[in-house]
Amino acid sequence: MEKFYNVSSSPHVRSKTSTQNLMLDVIIAMIPTSIWGIYHFGVNSLVILVATVAACVLTELVYQKAMHKPVTIADLSAVVTGMILALNMPPQVPVWIPVFGGVFAILVVKQLYGGLGQNFMNPALAARCFLLISFATYMNNFSFSNGSASFDSVSGATPLASLRAIHKGAEAASVYSLQDLFIGNIPGTIGEVSAAALLIGGIYLIVRKVISWRIPVCYIGTFAVLTFLFGGFNAEYVISEVCAGGLIFGAFFMATDYVTSPITEKGQYVFGVVLGLFTCIFRLKGASPEGVSYAIILSNLLVPLIERITMPVAFGIEKVKKEEKKA
Fold first, then answer.
1. Could you say which of 154, 222, 231, 303 has the lowest number of CB atoms within 10 Å?
2. What is the pLDDT along the chain (327 residues), one digit of tens a residue?
3. Residue 97 vs residues 94, 149, 248, 284, 323: alpha-carbon distances, Å
4. Which contacts (CB < 8 Å, 24+ apart) does range 287-290 have?
5. Where are the beta strands (DSSP E) in 22-74?
6. How far apart are the first and last CA of the chain?
């Protein structure tokens, strides 16, 4: 007597990993740089962080309630968007600016395009670029706390501005040591100043297999090689450029966004190289010393093309195409 077995519908390979679990890991990975930013710049950084996250979560909740859609704030994606946006803010920026940016990120970039998984660019980065254009004076005003927890700090040139001056042969307003750059005793946005804290979070994400090493390694590696070649063959200058600004933060926490990065392995290599190329061009030749946000946004737009070029071909398909051409 023959036995018949029922086969379940696809997908046949299942995982217990959920969006909530992935987002929770990203939140945990950003805790070290958040703690350092709050300690380094003072309590206003904590206010910005809490207010921006609250704005993102409330915007998503209100929109989904108003449109009679399922409420998805429990997946923590809005919390991640709020944290990334807040950590990209100068520590002394008025709180209403990142709150406004959080509403823009969730409402315009995420929800109006269909919600999580439908946005064509990173919502937090899109909001930051929007704020940079709309409120340039506030967004480009940085202070330096000199390593103290007090927010009463003095204004100073960012490391990237100093490096730009050195690269162009001018006298820099201030120069920061590699130790200061690595630890985070420098001016900048709340979450980008400590390379050590960011690397701890990035390694955590890789170990937890939340992200692949391909994009961040190819991104930082390509940028380092190009900066060495076109930045005067100066290794110390290259290391300073890597540790300064938002490169490490962008490489691990923004360029690796599932929705706006390639799903193919070859595509991730290509994506990382393109990111490094754009960032190098923007930093060395652009009007602003920082170029990570615009490089990632521009590369997000190229993801469909990258995936189309690097999509694996099923076994036998190429042979069939050749036979069809002969016919």
1. 154
2. 455 555 565 555 566 778 899 999 999 999 999 999 999 999 999 999 999 999 999 999 999 999 999 999 999 999 999 999 999 999 999 999 999 999 999 999 999 988 888 888 899 999 999 999 999 889 988 765 544 444 444 455 678 877 777 666 555 555 788 999 999 998 889 999 999 999 999 999 999 999 999 999 999 999 999 999 998 888 998 999 999 889 999 999 999 999 999 999 999 999 999 999 999 999 988 877 788 999 999 999 999 999 999 988 766 666 555 566 665
3. 6, 23, 24, 29, 60
4. 289/158, 289/160, 289/161, 289/163, 289/164, 289/245, 290/160, 290/245, 290/246
5. none
6. 47
pTM of the prediction? 0.88
Annotate 190-253 with DSSP letters as a single string.
TTTS-HHHHHHHHHHHHHTTSS-SHHHHHHHHHHHHHHHHHTTS-HHHHHHHHHSTTHHHIIII
Token readout for 157 is: 């040139």
How far does CA 23 lie from the centroid of its chain? Answer: 14
Among residues 137, 135, 172, which one has the least CA distance to residue 157?
A: 172
